[in-house]
Amino acid sequence: MRNTAFTLTALLALHSPPQAAQASCSSDGAARPVALFERFISADCEACWSDRATPAPSASALVLDWIAPGVLGDDAPLSAAASTDALQRLQTLGRQAPTSTDVFTAPVEGAPSARLRVAHGMAFNDYLGTSIAFTPARAAPGRTAAATDWRFYLLLVETVPAGTEGTPVARNMVRNMVHGTWDKRSKLSNSEQKRWMETRPMRIPDGAQPERLRVVGWVQDAQGRVVAAAQSDCGAQPGGR
Fold it and tell me: How many Å apart are CA 168 and CA 47, to the nearest integer?
């Protein structure tokens, strides 16, 4: 019962005003990414992790590093950070698991009025309370916004600074993922479709360093276009660490 109460408290803190900044971290005040830049690395390829020619985008992109399980299984040099989420993401993109490094990019094509917020609470018992909230773009004057389904992705990532742990570039290793669809048929009216939200506790995998964790997320429309993206940045908020 105590764990349940704490989880609820942590999730509620994600939606609290700025004075709760010490207990939570969000994308409030952070720059809005203009593109997704996803690097997929085979867990078999230790040299890929330390490659000085690793592809890297500008600071305006949301960078993700996925470690995909390889043929060596648990004996792979990067197996400790490998995740089946990487294979699931590759399948969604229609791509094969890499033997070295593969890169996928996608622009954020949504209107500036679309808003996405991601947030997380403090680590507790190997879990983080996380949330993602989306407000679609406003309709043009005199027009009604078309109802649609939205696909959301919320990822727990571990930031690894350049020059540490053998990597020459900064990385955001994907440690956990939740995703789903906000279905227009689940809302009763257009007014209820003006904001969508999801709150989830996410498990911190073994070996991850909680102080380096944050959340990133994006939303896609029914055609698969990325319409909004966000990443938490504690340093961009009052009282941030």
Answer: 11
| Cα distance between residue 225 and residue 131, in whole Å | 21
Q: What pLDDT is stored for residue 7 in this prediction?
A: 42
Specify the amino acid at residue 67. I
Average pLDDT over residues 179-186: 82
21 band by pLDDT with thresholds 50, 70 and 90: very low
d(CA 225, CA 188): 25
d(CA 55, CA 101) in angstroms, rounded, equals: 9
The β-bridge partners of 226 are 108, 220
- Both structure tokens of 208: 């991850």
pTM: 0.84
For residues 114-130, give the mean pLDDT: 94
| The predicted structure's pLDDT at residue 141 | 56
Residues 233, 27 contacting (CB under 8 angstroms): yes
Q: What gap in Å lies between CA 221 and CA 202, rounded to an integer? A: 24
User: Is residue 184 a contact partner of residue 220, using CB atoms and an 8 Å limit?
Assistant: no
- Is pLDDT above 90 for 11? no
